[in-house]
Design goal:
Helix content: 40-55%
Number of helices: 13
CATH architecture of the largest domain: 3-Layer(aba) Sandwich
Order of helices and strands: HHEHHEEHHHHEHEHEEHEHHEE
Shape: elongated
Strand order of the largest sheet: 6-5-4-7-8-10-9
Number of strands: 10
Oligomer: single chain
Structural class: alpha/beta
CATH superfamily of the largest domain: Vaccinia Virus protein VP39
Length: 322
């Protein structure tokens, strides 16, 4: 709060700031756009020394603020950050300059500068398109994609990770849902999963046979089976158990191998099945009690050596209404 004794001084300073035509022109531009000195010089057609001098005064009087971006400094007026008396003065000044021809000319040159920005952006992406995925992965990794997808899951859901292995997926899901229940039948895998998720209060790790899942009927909102079915002697029975533990209307997600003839690969990984055809998996899901089953192949990632995969989804059938 400005003391009463200093209010006239502040008022005079604000009025002096708005008393110069160049400063008015700069503020009219910076109220709606963040611009650099070179851009402002081009728009108002004044030398850099003149524009920089006026910007320094406006910054000292808190009309604008700036930030460093690469090798330049960008300026912007934030109307909501102005003190109420200064905001009133500015709104009056803006109203009185609305029909000023000089300002209209500035707006024409501003539009050109903004188009130049857009063209530069389009030129960058045109050149980067061929290598964009690789560049983005090198700069940012790929975990943000999974995080964005996980954020779509309703946060009050309980999700079962069937065949959870080392608990990597359970740990990744835990920030986004109410509870994750990981189930596996391998003592070695469960030991690693328990260690990985020890600090995650909403993750339970259980030992159990997927043909007799140790969960109550309808206790989960969704369940996942990722690269599990090829190891199991009776995939249909596991899918029926999966349906049993999911609430009506809940979701099932299965990722596994498409059919292949690489017997050496199957033996190396000790898998019982050499993949599943899409129509076979759709039938399995429908017979297990899932509505609208859908199966689609996944494009193999670069540098992967295993057979191609599919993604299958289904919704637990709702009870019939009499």
């Amino acid at each position: 709060m400005v003391k009463l004794s200093t209010q006239p001084d502040a008022l005079v300073a604000w009025m002096e700031s708005l008393a110069d035509p160049t400063r008015l022109r700069l503020l009219l531009l910076l109220e709606r756009h963040e611009l650099g000195v070179a851009e402002l010089c081009d728009i108002v057609q004044l030398p850099q020394s003149t524009v920089s001098r006026h910007l320094k005064l406006l910054a000292n009087q808190h009309w604008v603020r700036s930030r460093r971006h690469a090798t330049t400094r960008l300026y912007r007026m934030i109307l909501d950050e102005l003190r109420p008396p200064a905001r009133k003065l500015w709104l009056l000044a803006r109203e009185q300059t609305d029909a000023w021809p000089t300002v209209q000319q500035d707006q024409f040159r501003l539009a050109r500068r903004l188009r130049d920005r857009e063209d530069a952006s389009q030129l960058f992406f045109a050149g980067a398109a061929a290598q964009w995925d690789k560049l983005r992965a090198e700069l940012y990794g790929d975990r943000f994609v999974a995080a964005a997808c996980c954020a779509l899951i309703p946060p009050d859901w309980t999700v079962a990770d069937l065949g959870c292995g080392t608990g990597a997926l359970a740990a990744e899901l835990s920030p986004y849902v109410h509870q994750v229940i990981g189930i596996d039948n391998s003592a070695a895998m469960l030991k690693t999963a328990a260690r990985r998720t020890a600090e995650l209060k909403n993750v339970r790790i259980l030992r159990g046979d997927l043909q007799a899942i140790p969960l109550e009927d309808g206790s989960c909102d969704a369940a996942l089976l990722l690269l599990v079915l090829t190891y199991l002697p009776r995939p249909e029975a596991v899918l029926r158990e999966m349906a049993r533990i999911i609430k009506p209307g809940g979701r099932a997600v299965v990722v596994d191998l498409l059919p292949h003839d690489r017997d050496d690969f199957r033996r190396q990984l000790n898998q019982r099945h050499a993949g599943f055809a899409a129509d076979t998996m759709e039938s399995f899901l429908r017979e297990a009690g899932f509505d609208r089953p859908a199966v689609r192949p996944l494009v193999p990632q670069a540098n992967t050596r295993g057979p191609a995969l599919f993604l299958a989804t289904g919704q637990r059938a709702l009870p019939m209404v009499s």
